[in-house]
Specification:
The protein has helices at residues 19-24, 31-46, 52-59, 63-75, 100-109, 111-121, 142-150, 152-165, 171-183, 188-200, 206-218, 224-244, 253-265, 270-283, 288-301, 307-323, 331-337, 342-350; strands at residues 79-83, 89-94. The protein is mainly alpha-helical. The chain folds into three domains: 19-94, Arc Repressor Mutant, subunit A (Orthogonal Bundle), CATH 1.10.10; 111-228, no CATH class; 266-350, no CATH class. The chain has a two-stranded antiparallel sheet with strand order 1-2. Helix 6 packs across helix 12 (224-244), helix 10 (188-200) crosses helix 11 and helix 14 (270-283) crosses helix 15 (288-301).
């Protein structure tokens, strides 16, 4: 048998692309993000170095867009950035993709991701979203939209929005961008971060995007780092309460509404909320959110601000119990003396 030799005149080099990148990340990334990642693979395959300026010149994009793309991939945990004291990127390291099994474990068992999914699904009653009473969206005229679009800074904002959403913005969409930029005073970087935040949660609707933006504005959030801290804290509070009440499911919209009330409306710290949760778990197996809410509502009326304040209320109640005469211990008087009477609350909740 004669063997056939195979030859090639031009030996080309190739950049390998992970199938996991194609399966899990390609569909959700915008054009700039994909181009930047492929460019990095190209440099890596030949051991070439690069810089932000070179990438910006190669793609004819502003340097800010290149940095945003790199930051996006860093958040996706497929590369890491080393930044010096002048906030200049000095090194980019491409990271290994997690195995399919690891991805499954992260999706199924990560409390934070579970809470995030639940909050995104419950947009209409999402407690991290505002009441929309503080900020009002004007009915912008076509002339106002035209003036907004004519600004030099606007083109960058609209380009970012269209890149993330993968569509040309409608007049209604531009009104939303104008509202976020002008009425809420969001910077270009914060609008960029806002769009990433919402799209990562599967939300491309500007009604949802506006709600999140208003919420951030109400909490005086002006930078992407502040937004990240705010979101992380809220998710941690939600998961802590669910765990403290013996629940391993993601919160329902009603449960999330209770948590918002305790932290954002009553302004309780975690130790006060967890104290109410602990008393609830010891007292009942049913209607725990309602039960805890009765306790915290009474503490709010009594002026509780810190955990030591609870000890004073408890001491005062026990002192009243000792002084109370038998005649005054009917159910009505007993409830009036102690607004968070566990036995009374239990009977009330179970009768509903």
């Amino acid at each position: 048998m004669n063997f056939i030799s195979i030859k090639q005149n031009n030996i080309n080099t190739y950049s390998l692309i992970s199938n996991q990148f194609l399966d899990s990340f390609l569909a959700h990334a915008n054009e700039i993000q994909i181009k930047v990642y492929l460019f990095l693979l190209r440099c890596l395959s030949e051991g070439k170095s690069t810089d932000i300026s070179s990438m910006a010149d190669f793609f004819n994009y502003p340097e800010k867009d290149i940095v945003r793309a790199l930051t996006y991939w860093e958040k996706k945990n497929i590369l890491s950035l080393t930044i010096d004291s002048k906030e200049t990127i000095t090194e980019i390291q491409l990271l290994d993709f997690p195995s399919s099994k690891e991805e499954h474990i992260i999706k199924e068992k990560s409390p934070a991701s579970a809470v995030s999914s639940s909050l995104a699904a419950a947009v209409k009653t999402d407690p991290s979203l505002p009441s929309e009473k503080k900020f009002h969206k004007p009915d912008y005229s076509l002339d106002q939209l035209a003036e907004f679009q004519s600004r030099e800074s606007t083109s960058e904002i609209l380009f970012i929005a269209e890149s993330y959403l993968g569509k040309t913005l409608s007049a209604s969409d531009i009104r939303s961008v104008l509202f976020i930029s002008q009425e809420l005073n969001f910077s270009v970087d914060l609008i960029d971060h806002l769009l990433q935040y919402c799209i990562d949660r599967g939300k491309k609707d500007f009604r949802y995007i506006e709600k999140v933006a208003i919420n951030w504005a109400e909490h005086n959030i002006t930078t992407p780092s502040q937004a990240d801290s705010f979101s992380s804290k809220y998710q941690k509070d939600v998961y802590t309460v669910m765990n403290a009440l013996g629940k391993n499911n993601t919160p329902t919209p009603k449960e999330a509404e209770y948590i918002k009330r305790w932290y954002q409306i009553y302004g309780f710290s975690s130790d006060v909320v967890l104290e109410a949760c602990e008393r609830t778990v010891l007292a009942t197996d049913r209607h725990r959110f309602e039960y805890a809410d009765k306790i915290l509502s009474s503490w709010n009326k009594a002026g509780v601000h810190h955990k030591p304040d609870i000890d004073k209320i408890d001491a005062g109640f026990h002192a009243k119990q000792k002084k109370a005469s038998p005649a005054s211990k009917n159910s009505f008087n007993h409830f009036q003396q102690n607004e968070y009477d566990f036995e009374r609350l239990e009977k009330e909740l179970l009768s509903n």
